[in-house]
């Protein structure tokens, strides 16, 4: 353990998806001390967290930071942007859908200036993951999901995929890979896979978890980060010092938020709020991306089978533009009537129902996160600028998605389950009408990213370099979904874990250099 209280070799801010990986990997070296600062409690013995199928009950609960967005004139202004307040971060909160980013996703990063992050170099990090990533187990493959897959194949002509991570794909339909333990429906989250073994065995005295502790300001000595100021659950304020490096892994919302509160960000914005400017860095909080999706809901003629892994066990990918390497339309298949937003528009939730969610894998809209106050307790403003892309690509993707979904709904054996279309409703066929309804009822799949993106120093919006070091500062890196230059076309959790693995390697390399 460290000789002086609150002094460690590395301070990791955020015990979430990437932070759990980094803490576990760095402390493999018994001579290295690591403190993890996590705003939420432990997930150990929390059945409400660890049971995958109970994920919906976590949204909007006491383990949710509950961010909202500013008004979205082209989209839905009523979305709750859930961010997890618990060890394991959003991997303790989400559905654990596990896609290795596609080769073209990584190559897009490298082309944007993230040198060394191409598909060939990144492949090795997937093999290192400790999570139990498996296809939805046979016992969890319910009959309506099987029939939906058969109908989707027939209606769209895409192949069935039995293992989305087995090889790259352009399109396909099938049961998902999940990071879970099918025998008991327990999560294989970042915390479960990377931290629980040490917490339960007590075999890492060099790892300190500071739970229910909130980081609100980075400590800097000139241009070098030396630690972070935190507030504990009882209100005590402390300075946690890093001998070597501070690693900011607070997520795509709270990482830029912490930088901005610490005076790192666009000079003009900071000055307007009275925050002393430590380092003028225009890209902090910019380049905000998401995977927006809308919904089409059907009432079923009978109750659904009760077996399921997490009630959204299958997915469909379609490539409308054959000249592209990536799918450009995705659907999650929910074995529940997902009517949260339609109900606000006056639609009723059916007793039994299912949903398809047309999703935009490569949204062209770009938003930003910014502060409205210098007070750390005031939540940041999130402006996703949904559906503001100039050519209307995002809105058209949703309309195209509903047309595909309706074809699947007419196709057996899935058609035999359906009583009627609830939302948008069979009478809504005009493109303009459809687009308006779909945008009003659109949702998020909780994939904010890009707000501290990787890029070269001459990229005005780049926040970190290819080794995840903040441009112009020393002793500090950012490691989470905020560093994504662009979102992968697939659910990004595995990508975040892989970023964590690569970052741990980069940090350990630096560590060895310091010891030499």
From TrEMBL:
FAD binds at residue 86. It comes from Streptomyces pluripotens. Its cofactor is FAD. PANTHER family: GLUCOSE-METHANOL-CHOLINE GMC OXIDOREDUCTASE, OXIDASE (CODA), PUTATIVE (AFU_ORTHOLOGUE AFUA_8G04090)-RELATED. It comes from the Bacteria. Residues 251-265 form the Glucose-methanol-choline oxidoreductase N-terminal domain. This is Oxidoreductase. The keyword Flavoprotein applies. InterPro entries: FAD/NAD-bd_sf, GMC_OxRdtase, GMC_OxRdtase_N, GMC_OxRtase_C. The lineage of its organism: Bacteria, Bacillati, Actinomycetota, Actinomycetes, Kitasatosporales.
């Amino acid at each position: 353990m460290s000789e002086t209280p609150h002094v460690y070799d590395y301070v990791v801010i955020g015990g979430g998806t990437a932070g759990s990986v980094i803490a576990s990997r760095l402390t493999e070296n018994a001579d290295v001390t690591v403190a993890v600062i996590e705003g939420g409690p432990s997930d150990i013995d929390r059945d409400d967290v660890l049971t995958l199928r109970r994920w919906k009950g976590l949204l909007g609960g006491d383990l949710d930071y509950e961010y909202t967005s500013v008004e979205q004139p082209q989209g839905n202004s009523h979305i709750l942007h859930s961010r997890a307040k618990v060890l394991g971060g959003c991997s303790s909160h989400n559905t654990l859908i596990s896609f290795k980013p596609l080769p073209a996703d990584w190559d897009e990063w490298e082309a944007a200036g993230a040198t060394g992050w191409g598909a060939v170099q990144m492949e090795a990090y997937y093999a290192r993951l400790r999570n139990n990533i498996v296809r939805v187990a046979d016992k969890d493959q319910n009959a309506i999901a099987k029939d939906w897959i058969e109908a989707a194949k027939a209606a769209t002509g895409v192949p069935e995929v039995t293992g989305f991570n087995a090889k790259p794909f352009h399109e396909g339909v099938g049961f998902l890979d999940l990071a879970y333990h099918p025998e008991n429906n327990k999560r294989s989250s970042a915390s479960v896979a990377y931290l629980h073994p040490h917490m339960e065995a007590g075999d890492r005295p060099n790892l300190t978890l500071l739970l229910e502790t909130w980081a609100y300001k980075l400590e800097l000595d000139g241009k070098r980060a030396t630690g972070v100021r935190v507030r504990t659950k009882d209100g005590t304020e402390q300075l946690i010092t890093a001998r070597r490096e501070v690693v900011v892994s607070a997520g795509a919302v709270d990482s830029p938020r912490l930088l901005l509160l610490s005076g790192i960000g666009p000079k003009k914005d900071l000055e307007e709020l009275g925050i002393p400017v430590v380092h003028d860095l225009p890209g902090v909080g910019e380049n905000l991306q998401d995977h927006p999706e809308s919904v089409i809901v059907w009432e079923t003629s009978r109750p659904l089978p009760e077996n399921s892994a997490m009630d959204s066990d299958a997915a469909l990918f379609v490539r409308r533009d054959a000249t592209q390497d990536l799918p450009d339309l995705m659907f999650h298949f929910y074995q529940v009537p997902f009517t949260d937003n339609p109900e606000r528009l006056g639609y009723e939730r059916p007793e039994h129902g299912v949903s398809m969610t047309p999703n935009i894998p490569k949204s062209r809209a770009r938003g930003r996160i910014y502060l409205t106050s210098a007070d750390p307790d005031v939540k940041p403003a999130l402006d996703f600028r949904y559906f503001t892309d100039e050519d209307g690509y995002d809105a058209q993707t949703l309309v195209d998605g509903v047309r595909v979904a309706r074809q699947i709904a007419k196709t057996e054996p899935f058609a035999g389950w359906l009583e009627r279309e609830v939302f948008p409703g069979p009478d809504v066929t005009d493109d303009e009408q459809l687009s308006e309804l779909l945008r009003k009822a659109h949702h998020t799949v909780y994939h904010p990213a890009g707000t501290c993106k990787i890029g070269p120093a001459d990229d005005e919006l780049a926040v970190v370099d290819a080794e995840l070091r903040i441009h112009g500062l020393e002793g500090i890196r950012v490691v989470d979904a905020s560093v994504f230059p662009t979102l992968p076309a697939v659910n990004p959790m595995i990508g975040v874990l892989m970023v964590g693995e690569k970052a741990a390697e980069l940090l350990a390399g630096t560590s060895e250099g310091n010891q030499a």
